Fold this protein.
Amino acid sequence: MKDSKRDPTTQAFEALANTRHEAHYSLRLYITGMTPRSTDAIAAIKAICEEYLFGRYDLEVIDIYQHPEQAKAAEIIVSPTLLKRLPLPLRRLIGDLSNRERVLIGLDLAVGA
């Protein structure tokens, strides 16, 4: 079927779906010190980013013990919390980031997500 005969809404949806896989991701990971839970969260998100977003992401790690004002401004009350700022929509993944499938779905990277 030619593009000119497809519904404009379908074309817009397909364009959005294609750009999602090329979009640049802006992520913030809020942790509490260098605890085992924090280091596990850092390792888990870095592994996912390197596998699925290589060259297309910025990951900022914020220790809420050292920068409580940033945690307050972002309304972070639980650690670890991963904040996906871009691409929209904004998402928060709270707690254990070792569940790979949950993180992929939260970042809109899972197949069929």
Notes: Residues 36-52 form the longest helix (17 residues). Helices lie at 8-20, 36-52, 68-73, 100-106.
